[in-house]
Amino acid sequence: MPAMAEARSNPVGIRNRSAPVLLDVLCAARQTSICCELSPEGGLVAETIESAEQQWRTGPDGDFVTRGLIDLQVNGFGGLDFNRGGITADRLDLALIELAKTGVTALLPAIITGSAGRMVRVLRELDEAVAASRLGPLMIAGYHIEGPFLSPEDGFSGSHDSAHMSAANLDLIDDLQRNVSRGIKLVTIAPEVSGAIEMIRVLAGRGIQVAIGHSNANEQQISAAVDAGVTLCTHLGNGLPQMLHKTDNPIFWQLADDRLTAMFIADGIHVPRPALQTMLRAKGHTRTILTTDAVSAAGINTGPGFYTLGAAEIERSQEGSVRIPGSSYLAGSSVTMDQMLRNMMAWYGLTVPVLVQLMRENPLHFIRTRQDPGPMGATDGVVEWETTADGPVVRRAHIGPFTVE
Predict the structure, then answer these.
(1) 3-state SS class at 94
(2) Which of 78, 196, 228, 342 has a beta carbon 3.0–4.6 Å from 299's, enabling a disulfide?
(3) CA 26, 27, 32, 33 torsion: positive or negative?
(4) Sign of the CA dihedral 135, 141, 147, 148?
(5) How many CB atoms lie within 10 A of CB 37?
(6) How far is residue 239's CA from residue 31's CA, in Å, rounded to a whole number?
(7) What is the pLDDT of residues 10-63, one digit of tens each?
(8) For residue 86, what are the contacts with CB-CB under 8 A and spacing of at least 6?
(9) C-alpha 298: how far from its chain's center?
(10) Read out DSSP for 345-394?
């Protein structure tokens, strides 16, 4: 971390730990509890102490501890637009503190469709802020590039600027990667655009995950994309027109392919609850990831009003939906990860171990590759939860040497 960054005082809401912290942490994959010691310096030592029959330890009030949640698609948060440019390290820290208060300890900021020059500049400026910030090097596990290799057709393009969409272009990916200190971990692409299949092969060969999104691909194109190395579906059920053929459509083809893991936005707005339940049954717990697709309008302390998403103005309504004013298409979400956890518990009765799988362990699989494992701190966070009448809420999060509460 640069020397001048070290000299800054911590932002409000974050403090350095002065003594070790001992916590029993839920590990959903092994259905065990892990005793974690968090040192003042941020080190983590873990030892399994529970049998497979006991999922995790709770406090006298039902409180519990989990490893930090991981969000693979965050466009902005807490009033900060990651796609706007000119981000300072201090302002980024404030947004990351707000994210940590929702249980997120690792994320992939998403850079959306724009001109090539704008995308390169925005990502470079964001990455500079990450490197100079306190929490950025610990929480930012890499980047998600969503566009410009998407369908420009109305409905499929969603809130992305179709004027800047293009054929697959590896030179742009190389330019984006050349300007950042940490890896591009995920690229969303429409398999039907020119050159997409070859790009998928190259990216997969580099260890970069590729997702289908904002796509009007047919069954054969989707299958060819998966054969070439696509592993994920970006916000499945969205980035589509309101009207589709009842069965012959990209949603069913992606749900049917067991090689694909689907990302869903569980806010009750992007996908109606009965439809989401059906999609979850199709993919199962092992092939499902929950993500927010959050924009600058998301956060504990944000509310209805006008915000930005890149060059576009967006509006958050009273019920929480976010759209470009005058458009019927959604422009990201205002939901938080902890709210999605409560939603899934209330709607479908999912347990905390299952939700940790969907919100931590499944996404972790896609960002910790042998070619580029990323910064260790980005996936080692720990979150303490308090049980309330409305469901679990975050009490505090431990990230590296810092505690956020």
Answers:
(1) helix
(2) 78
(3) negative
(4) positive
(5) 13
(6) 35
(7) 665 676 665 555 555 555 444 555 555 555 555 544 444 343 333 344 555 678
(8) 125
(9) 13
(10) HHHH---HHHHHIIIIIHHHHHH--SS----GGGG--EEEEEEETTEEEE
Which region holds residue 78: left if phi is over 0, alpha if psi is between -120 and 50, else beta?
Answer: left
Predicted confidence (pLDDT) per residue in 276-324, tens digit: 999 999 999 999 999 999 999 999 788 899 999 999 999 999 999 999 9
Of 92, 95, 143, 137, the C-alpha closest to 298 is 95
Phi, psi for 145 (deg, rounded to 5): -100, 110
Q: State the burial class of residue 347 (Cβ atoms within 10 Å of its Cβ: 0-12, 13-18, 19+).
A: middle
**Token reading at 48:** 């399994």
Q: Using only the alpha carbons of the chain, give its radius of gyration.
A: 20
> Which among 267, 261, 253, 207 is positioned nearest to 234, based on CA atoms?
261
Length of the chain: 405
Domains recognised in the chain with CATH numbers: 68-377 (3.20.20.140)
Are the CB atoms for 393 and 338 separated by under 8 Å? yes
Q: What residues contact 135, with CB distance under 8 A and at least 6 apart? A: 14, 92, 93, 96, 97, 100, 399, 400, 402
pLDDT at residue 3 tops 60: no
The torsion angles phi and psi of 314, rounded to 5 degrees, stand at: -125, 160
On whether the CB atoms of residues 109 and 144 are closer than 8 A, the answer is: yes
Residue type, 384: E
- In this structure, the dihedral spanned by the alpha carbons of residues 149, 130, 99 and 344, taken in order and rounded to 10 degrees, is 40
C-alpha pair distances (Å), 70 with each of 17, 57, 136: 22, 22, 14
- Confidence at residue 8, expressed as pLDDT on a 0 to 100 scale: 59
What does DSSP assign to residue 35? E
Distance from C-alpha of 112 to C-alpha of 33, rounded to nearest angstrom = 38
- Would you say residue 64 has pLDDT above 80? yes
